[in-house]
Amino acid sequence: MMASVAWAQGAQGGGAGAGASLLSLVPFVLIFIVFYFLLILPQQKRQKKLKAMLEALKKGDKVVTSGGIWGTVTNLGKETVTLQISDNTKIKVQRESISRLRADEEE
Hints:
Layout: H1 2-55, E1 62-65, E2 70-76, E3 80-86, E4 89-94, E5 98-101
Antiparallel strand pairs: 1-2, 1-5, 2-3, 3-4
């Protein structure tokens, strides 16, 4: 008699187990969606904006490098940018190291 009761309970639990396992994945899916909208999507937007800024660089732009060097663009190459950082000082940096354009009022 006990074996038949246990068998009946096992048969019902098997059908509910598949639904419960799908239900247990819902929190992970929700966490991924939250991470996508809070972390991944804004980072992709920033990267697109930075790429567009780097492609639009021109002579005379005032920029700041990722190392904190302030300079004015004097020459543009395919991979490099020449910056004038002082009256007689020019340096060549990789285009990707430029982090932002400086506003005219910044000094």
